[in-house]
């Protein structure tokens, strides 16, 4: 005790409070996600009847069982006895307690004998074997119904993942999401990098205006673009006889929607590159194209990486653009769209929802933890963007 | 499936190559059109000057094209469409806006959006600041920050599933599998259908966005706090200021600009909030917001582009002051270049 007090004095009470409050915040932030991680791995019957935080403890459940028919009774001395096992062979569950009324499914502990009045007794053991005895012969045609409180050990399984990947279309949607996200990340980087170079190192009329336009467009809500673009896509589709909802269409849309932030971030970075390097290359007779490809592009790697992560997360997590520019058929629906559809059709099936949600968020989480450094840098550089 | 992967990879390569080819070929072409030959100095310098005029436009061309087609033109078109009827053919003046002002759902959306604007940016900034200050003082602060920051990577739809599970409801007396109702029932309360609880359900939806965005506020504010010069804090300590005073009178005033940036960024995000409401309630139980109402009218009854556009314009109007502020700030910062 004295040692603990000394320890506490050394750390200091205020410091301890800081540690504990940060711990509380972190747990609060982690708890919701933990819920679906654990639930997705649970047996679906257990998931439906107990909270995920009890996943590691053994579950107690009430079950109904029927004793054998009166026809199987045997006479032992002056008692009529029905004996047997409530489980089929091979069942490993253990019985905690039992009862004869639904209101009291755990009235009597397993292994003890329940006195049912008028000399009638029932004994159920933990392994399921029972002995039901009575001074008079049993009548009726069906066995007696009894209630058991059963303990089941925690069960973890990958079945939920197998189900959603195959029969709920999540596997296919995963591929679709990749098909959307990768080109929609690479194309805007290339296009924006050239523009950013021109806006930082080349002189031309209208440069300031274009920079102002880019900054202004960063915050323009997507909603302002949707209606005219939807019309435009439909018209182009009708005129040229092509489908209006295509992957190429959504790549271009994402390229454009990511463009203002991309140009802004990259320009801010490129402007800060040392002037001497670029000027001396110019003096040596290098063209702007060569300077850009050989000097500026490699030096801008950190900014390019920051934007790539932003754009990838944004495209992967987007629902609105995909709902407008892509179809909802199996070969076009993306993960977020599929998850949204499942929320409607599988509202109560948490084993399906949690496993699907996990597959939806795992890729961004890997990207996040692997490349967090670049993401933070990008955020600090581009915090005028509204998402 | 394999076919799709192959074709996706193929298209990816073609797309990227086409991009590279455009920039490379257009530059080559420019050099060929305006050749620089030895000998004729006058002609050479004229060529060089012309190249310098054209080349910037080759570089910004594709970017400018997508910006104009996908953002500038649609903004103007939406503005115009908002004065036309449902099919966009008949001019109807301001009647779409008049309709909006008298529409019950629209009023509900405005009310909810204001509620969101009042709560979410303030809550995110406050929690972000508190967590940034606390984590800066402990050795495992970076791990803690990383975990609070993590929801940033999760999609709104994924986050909605996560929180729908938290809010899950079973009838009273049954085993609750949603943690919130389990806690409420454990403490002797009555479990509630949280997302259908009038008025308060808005706050349960906001909790999701706060959960996602606090990490963003924390990261930015934490960097700003580290940028505060040590001397100012040391001077305050010498003058006998306590921790509370140092925080409010020394630290907060110095990061005021950053707080404003965080606040406005989250404000814009809140104005556009869509996915969370769509997946949690689809606007039922009085939770509808402008972005969802707008999306609804895009397709409702075959779509009403007039009403939908009018709602979009109203979202745009709300964003405009922030946009102007951003442009001015950027222009000021650019002064040197």
From TrEMBL, chain A:
It holds the Pfam family BPD_transp_1. The chain crosses the membrane at residues 16-41, 173-197, 209-230, 250-270, 291-316, 352-371. It is a multi-pass membrane protein. Residues 174-371 form the ABC transmembrane type-1 domain. Its main location: membrane. One of its GO terms (biological process) is transmembrane transport. Keywords: Cell membrane, Membrane, Transmembrane, Transmembrane helix, Transport. GO terms for cellular component: plasma membrane. Belongs to the binding-protein-dependent transport system permease family. This is Alpha-glucoside ABC transporter permease. The lineage of its organism: Bacteria, Pseudomonadati, Pseudomonadota, Alphaproteobacteria, Hyphomicrobiales.
From TrEMBL, chain B:
Keywords: Cell membrane, Membrane, Transmembrane, Transmembrane helix, Transport. The chain crosses the membrane at residues 6-25, 57-84, 114-135, 147-166, 203-225, 246-271, 308-327. It is a multi-pass membrane protein. Residues 110-326 form the ABC transmembrane type-1 domain. GO terms for cellular component: plasma membrane. Gene3D superfamilies: MetI-like. CDD domains: TM_PBP2 (cd06261). Belongs to the binding-protein-dependent transport system permease family. This is Alpha-glucoside ABC transporter permease. It comes from Metarhizobium album.
